[in-house]
Amino acid sequence: MINFELTNEIKSILTNIQSNKEDHSVAILENYSLVDFLIAIIQIHYTEGISSIEEIHKLIDMYNCHMNERIQEVYISLDDDHPLNIMKRENDTFINTLERMEEKLTIVASKKDSSMLEEDLKIIGALYAHYNRKEKLIFPILERKQVYTLPRKIWALDDDNRTTYHQFKNRLKRIDEIEFKHIRKSFDTLNKGMKQMILHEEDILIPLVQELFTAQECETIANESKAFGYAVDVKSVWSDKDKVYQTKEKKSEDKNQNIKIGGGYLTLKEAELILNNIPLELTFVDKNGLFKYFNEITESADMMFIRTPISIGRSVANCHPPKSLKKMMQVMRKLKNREQETVTMWFKKGEEYIYVTYKGVFDEKGEYQGILEYVQDIQPFLDLPSVVKRDI
C-alpha cells in the first residue's frame, strides 16, 4: 500500500536535491518504515518518473546518514553464497571489469585489436545469468507480495542492457570495418546502463527483498539459481541453518489408482512418468492466464526454455520480458478466440534448432481451458540421412 503522505514528503526532499539546496531534512522519514520508504520511492521513480536513479541514490545516502545505517548492506546473512550476497559480488565484478575495459579502450583503438577485451567481454556477458536469476526467481516472489511495478520496469532496463551488450560485442568484431567512435558509443551506453542497474538493485531491490522475503523464500531462490548460472564462483547452495519450517500436511495420494485418461487408463504415477519422458518441453497456462505446469524431462539448467517451480502460479503476463509481452498477448488472444489453431516459431540456439508450438486447449464443450506450449529440438530430424530406415 502506497503512503501518499510519505510520497509527498519524499518529493519535497527530491526537489531540494534537484535544486542543489543544502538543507535536505530527512528527519521526517523516521516516522515511516523502510518498506514504506522504498514503496514510495518506487511510486515516485518508476511509476511517476519524477526523478533520476542518481537523485534517488543521493536520497538513499541522506537516509543512511540520518538513520546511521546502510540499507544496501546485506544483513540477513554474512554467507557469500546467500543469493543477495551473490548479486552484490557480481555487481562488484561488473564494475571492476567495466573500469578495466575503459582503461583498455584507448589501446584497443590505437592497435585496432579487440583481443585484449575477450576475457572481459565474457565476464560482462554473465549479465545474462545475473539478470535471468533476478527476473525468474526474485520477481515472482515480489509479485506474490503485490509489488508489480518494480519488476516490470527493471526487466525493461535489463533488456536494454542486454541489447547494448550484444551491439557492443558485434561492433567489436567489426573493429577493422567501422569507425571506433561507434564502438566507443556502445561501450559508454553499456557502462552507464549497467552501473545504473546496480543502483536500482542495491538502493531499492535488495533492501526491499531483505525486508519482505523470508529465509525459506531465499533458500528456494538459492536452490533454483544454479540452472541460470553465475558471474562469480559459488561454492555451495545457501541454506538457512536456523530453519524451522512448518510444512502443511500433504493429503495422501494414491498414485497407483487407475484414472480414465483419453482412450484408456493410467495411474497418476504412470501419467507423470509419461509426461516426463515425452521428448518435448511442455508448459501449460490455464484459462486465467496462470503458469500452472511444466514437465521435467531434464534438469532445469539443460532445458531449452528454463522453467523452475518458483514461477508456478505466476501470471503469464509477468513471465515474459516487457519488449515481447504485447506479441505474446496477441498470440494468446488468437488462440483463445480460435483465430488460429496453433502458432509456431523456430530459431537456432547453439547447436539446437528449437521449434516452438503454442496451442489453444478446449474441452468437449468447446470452452477455452488454457494454452499448451511444446518445445523441441528438431536438429536431429534435420540431420537424418535421406536413406529410409525401417529396421529397429
TrEMBL record:
Record's GO cellular component terms: plasma membrane
Every Hemerythrin-like domain range: 82-209
Coiled-coil annotated spans: none
Pfam family, one: Hemerythrin
InterPro entries listed in its UniProt record: Hemerythrin-like, PAS-like_dom_sf
Protein name: DUF438 domain-containing protein
Organism: Macrococcoides goetzii
Phylogenetic classification of the source organism: Bacteria, Bacillati, Bacillota, Bacilli, Bacillales
